[in-house]
Design a protein that fits this description.
mainly alpha; Alpha-lytic protease prodomain-like; 3 strands
Length: 300
């Protein structure tokens, strides 16, 4: 049931992704052309950020399609983790873009560069309009998977970059002081780096099966132990298969008073209902062990 719900969500979001992808691609080309003609590094920097958005949206589209693949005996969760891998690659690519922008800005330090302020401002306005349109299109789907969330954050970062390029164009047009273009481009690079580090951190947590950020491990443990007849637990693991897909497994030691194995089913139902309602963990596996059960010596 949950898998089918995710399939429906992915199908609904792909239309928005495709539209945002086409808009971003067109205006990226416009910004590159405008940056080359005007000589504006800020526009080229913003176009570089928009390029990462194109990549992020493309990865999100591919990942959404892969996520629709049904589970198989070889891949029991299907290709849900493809979303995470795509987002991680996107974050790594962002870091490369930051390096390129910083290098170009460094080479321009101390140089007199001719920049076409009016053209720079026109292209920046068009880029800002494209960013806001894409953000609006994706606003309803940004919580579906981490690729869409990353792309959404990048689009918002692009909007700030376009505002920066617009401000730089205004300064150049009013005063002729072209170094502001380099300063703005470095500011855009910082925005890109900030979003890329956040994205890499979130995807890495999923890849290494870390406890989801929105779930408190110790709180889950306390709530499980608060269930009647649950004496102790070990090997509690909570992780995400993909964004919004938390999974839990745990071994639970029952109290000696709970000797009726027919009652264990009630204990299991109560625990799974609690995990679903309080923590949103639908996929949980609980191994119930009697009080005299001799557990093994595993370290995990």
């Amino acid at each position: 049931m949950a898998h089918n719900h995710r399939l429906e969500e992915n199908r609904n979001s792909r239309k928005a992704l495709w539209l945002a992808f086409l808009i971003t691609l067109v205006f990226m080309i416009v910004e590159v052309t405008g940056g080359l003609i005007s000589g504006s590094l800020a526009l080229l920097a913003d176009a570089g950020h928009m390029l990462t958005d194109v990549a992020a949206l493309a990865l999100a589209i591919v990942a959404a399609r892969l996520a629709e693949s049904p589970p198989t005996p070889r891949r029991t969760f299907g290709f849900l983790r493809a979303e995470v891998i795509g987002a991680f690659l996107n974050g790594a690519f962002l870091v490369v873009i930051v390096g390129f922008i910083a290098w170009e800005a460094w080479k321009r330090l101390g140089q007199q560069v001719v920049i076409d302020g009016p053209l720079m401002m026109v292209v920046a306005v068009l880029g800002l309009a494209a960013n806001l349109a894409c953000a609006k299109i994706m606003s309803g789907s940004r919580r579906i998977n981490i690729n869409i969330q990353g792309a959404y954050l990048h689009v918002l970062g692009d909007a700030l970059g376009s505002l920066g390029a617009l401000a730089a164009g205004t300064v150049i047009l009013a005063t002729g002081w072209t170094p502001v273009d380099t300063i703005v481009s470095m500011g855009i690079a910082v925005i890109i780096l900030w979003s890329s580090v956040r994205l890499l951190g979130r995807t890495l947590n999923i890849i290494i099966n870390a406890t989801p950020e929105d779930i408190e491990y110790e709180e889950v443990k306390r709530e499980l132990l608060a269930i009647e007849h649950f004496a102790d637990l070990h090997d509690l693991h909570i992780w995400n298969i993909s964004t919004g897909f938390p999974v839990l497994s745990v071994h639970v030691r029952l109290k000696p008073s709970c000797s009726d194995s027919t009652h264990w089913q009630k204990c299991l139902q109560d625990a799974q209902a609690m995990l679903r309602e309080k923590f949103g963990i639908v996929h949980s596996t609980l191994q119930l062990e009697p009080a005299d059960y001799e557990k093994d010596n595993r370290s995990l």
